[in-house]
Give the backbone structure.
Amino acid sequence: MKTKIFASLILSGLVALPAFAETRVPETRAEIQMSFAPVVKETSPAVVNVYARRLVSQRDQGPFSDPLFRKFFGGDGVFGAPRERVQNSLGSGVIVDGKGLIVTNNHVILGGSDIRVVLADRREFEAKLLVADERTDLAVLKIEPGDEVLPALNMGDSDDLEVGDLVLAIGNPFGVGQTVTSGIVSALARTQVGITDYQFFIQTDAAINPGNSGGALIDLKGNLIGINTAIFSRSGGSIGIGFAIPANMVKTVVQSAETGGRIQRPWIGAETQDVTAEIADSLGFARPEGALIAGLHPNSPLAVAGLKRGDVILGLDGKPVENAKELSYRVATAQIGSSAIVEYQRGTERRETRIKLIAAPETTARDETLMEGNTPFTGLVVANLSPAVADELGLPSGSTGVVASDVKGGPARRIFRKGDVLLEVNGVVIDSVDTLNSAVKTGEGFWQFAINRAGRVIRMQLGG
């Protein structure tokens, strides 16, 4: 009875509904027919399909691939010869310059020897790789459309996004063809995803599936505000948790491609860590925030400006810094040669200073060397560590010694990973490439060595 009375009061106008209810309900025919179609028509021609072909080596052992057979007959490949097969990967891309500049994900084209781009109108072009950046999982391609100016997307300012903003995702999921999905910005500044070195993702519930990687996340003005790169899923399909690389990060990689292809990011020469609840309490903070300086390189612009170990960075150029990964992102999206205002706290005092954003210095010659001969190191490319080399490989800025800058093949492929720091070989402390070369010559079939892999020391012994 009460429900009927309340309903009649609403109809008679004696009880007013909240204002948000009035503004959310379509009242006219035009409002009911509202559509994303105009935005899609404007933007979808700038989203492309990207195909990368790569050769992968596979050992065909036939029945001897069974673990029981391998136990008795050996698993070293005696019964099968390596063979190569063609593997194709599928992804999406976005035209960001009408002259044929295209952004996609690095994992889409990784290892590809033949990269092709198919436009929305089904024309196909061979693509040249200009930049491949593992640390951001971004790559920039170039196609040659002749005198034609291709449709391209303008890049928006991803810092202007707010949770709840409507967005569209455009790509080629599962290879079914160009597809548009809609959703909202579910969260910003996601830093615990573990996809790239620079974790500061836009989270969206717009459906993103395999094949969408490298596609566009756009706002309702038609601006590119992110590159779709990954999903969280237990089944392999979309469950409404997708992640996009912010457009402000994309801009820095595209600029590198336009200016020669070498990616250089500003360097502040600091080791930082998140301010936990315990640290915040010890510092007298009302809540956990900021990036605590745990170490500073002597050449660090922060050290030059007077910052010290134990200071907490709270902001960069007017933008708040909530944690160490956010600081890393803010620095990476700034410009070398510019300056930035750092807001920080020392003790109970909040301070500001201006720092100059510089490239990581090459304090020692790289002496990059491909290891040869008949040793476990054969096929390993090594280099002397400097802040510049450490920055390129995502290592702590204070790293010293010799690092595996690449792994080309040979025995090293089974042992080492890019970024491993060589600590010791047969009792010799490795402090330079020259020292490593001398130590390797004394091996004679017996090898003891230690490496630092992502902060963990691994010791190995081979031969003897």
